[in-house]
């Protein structure tokens, strides 16, 4: 049996993290990056969110793969290197191995320690497949290390980059274009290479807002947990009970917004500083942009992809797109 190789390229810069959080906290319109939602507890809470009846994206995308996976495979290169962006527990990619029949698998996430157990298990299930785990922060653009890719994805081997789960929605449209251009470059030059990506589509406001503000309050706990993360990182004294979770669909920007709203006027303190929030003032914690299918296909074309196939559920709430790079 082969053994997966592990390469950790991202190394946490704690001073930079503190600076980024503090700059957002003192900005005129307070905000944080959504990446700070995913500490250890936040990641587990998000896993719970995907099981909620209101949160349609995960199960809808899975149903699209189940219904249309064989048709997707017709358009995609066989024996490709499958490069899984934001692989997490690797379950989504692994569920497609039988359909897509990749020859190699590269799981990319911010920490190889998070990937390690999943990849070791996958390697036992697929003992003849080359596998690698890559610890990489691609939030500002994807740049795959050439030396590693030469070992696990030879230049003459087609690449299928896999970005499911509608994570592209966390990027503004401008940043999404820049990111997709970097993905296009990462596809390489082998004929048939491309991107398999999930995208959440525009739909009615009540359905969208319910998906981000569930009746059980799991998404509220996910959002409020950010305050505990900030307390640990900056030494702030946020009191969770003094804040409320807010989720709304901004129709003008075509995005769900998550905020934390002060229940009354309060002061948050940290070593060397403080900020007073008036009652109703918000900290903007996440955006999730929703696309029309023609709009997203145009975005892929602007990023350099030359042909796009798309599959949706019967209600056209979600889409999976295959975009060929060459």
Description:
The chain is of the alpha/beta class and 326 residues long. It folds into 2 domains: 30-53 and 205-289, no CATH class; 55-201 and 291-324, Vaccinia Virus protein VP39 (Rossmann fold, 3-Layer(aba) Sandwich), CATH 3.40.50. The chain is 37% helix and 25% strand. It has helices at 14-26, 40-49, 56-75, 91-94, 97-100, 112-125, 146-152, 173-186, 205-211, 218-234, 293-302; strands spanning 5-8, 81-85, 104-109, 130-135, 159-163, 194-200, 243-250, 255-262, 266-270, 273-277, 282-289, 307-312, 318-324. The strands form 3 sheets. Strands 1-4-3-2-5-6-13-12 form an 8-stranded mixed β-sheet, with helices on both faces. Strand 9 and strand 10 (273-277) form a beta hairpin. The longest helix is centred in the first third of the chain and has 20 residues, at 56-75.
CATH evolutionary superfamily of the largest domain: Vaccinia Virus protein VP39
Enter the CATH topology name of the largest domain.
Answer: Rossmann fold
What portion of residues is helical? 25-40%
Largest sheet: 8 strands, mixed
Going across the biggest sheet, name each strand in turn: 1-4-3-2-5-6-13-12
| Strand runs, count | 13
Q: What pattern of helices and strands is seen along the backbone?
A: EHHHEHHEHEHEHEHHEEEEEHEE
* Number of alpha- plus pi-helical segments: 11
- Assess the beta-strand content as a share of residues: 15-25%
CATH class of the largest domain: Alpha Beta
The protein's oligomeric status is single chain
Determine Rg (CA atoms, Å): 20 Å
The secondary structure category is alpha/beta
**The CATH architecture of the largest domain:** 3-Layer(aba) Sandwich
């Amino acid at each position: 049996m082969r053994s997966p190789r592990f390469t950790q390229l991202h190394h946490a810069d704690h001073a930079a993290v503190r600076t980024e959080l503090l700059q957002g906290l003192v900005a005129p319109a307070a905000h944080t990056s959504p990446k700070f939602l995913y500490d250890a507890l936040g990641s587990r809470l998000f896993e719970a969110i995907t099981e909620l009846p209101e949160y349609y994206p995960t199960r809808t995308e899975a149903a699209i793969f189940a219904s249309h996976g064989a048709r997707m495979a017709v358009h995609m290169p066989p024996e490709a290197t499958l490069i899984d962006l934001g692989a997490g527990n690797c379950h989504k990619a692994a569920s497609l191995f039988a359909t897509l029949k990749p020859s190699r698998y590269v799981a990319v996430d911010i920490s190889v320690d998070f990937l390690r157990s999943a990849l070791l298990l996958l390697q036992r299930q697929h003992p003849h497949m080359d596998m690698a785990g890559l610890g990489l922060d691609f939030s500002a653009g994807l740049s795959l290390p050439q030396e590693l890719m030469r070992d696990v994805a030879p230049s003459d081997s087609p690449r299928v980059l896999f970005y499911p789960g509608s994570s592209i929605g966390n990027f503004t449209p401008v940043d999404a274009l820049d990111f997709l251009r970097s993905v296009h470059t990462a596809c390489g030059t082998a004929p048939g290479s491309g991107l398999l990506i999930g995208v959440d589509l525009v739909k009615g406001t009540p359905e969208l807002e319910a998906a981000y503000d569930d009746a059980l309050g799991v998404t509220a706990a996910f959002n409020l947990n950010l305050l505990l993360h900030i307390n640990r990182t900056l030494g702030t004294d946020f009191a969770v009970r003094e804040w409320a979770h807010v989720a709304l669909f901004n129709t003008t920007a075509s995005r769900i917004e998550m905020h934390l709203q002060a229940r009354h006027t309060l002061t948050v303190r940290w070593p060397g500083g403080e900020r007073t929030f008036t009652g109703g003032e918000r900290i903007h914690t996440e955006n999730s942009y929703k696309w029309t299918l023609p709009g997203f296909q145009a975005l892929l074309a602007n990023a350099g992809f030359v042909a796009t196939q798309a599959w949706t559920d019967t209600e056209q709430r979600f889409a999976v797109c295959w975009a060929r790079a060459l």
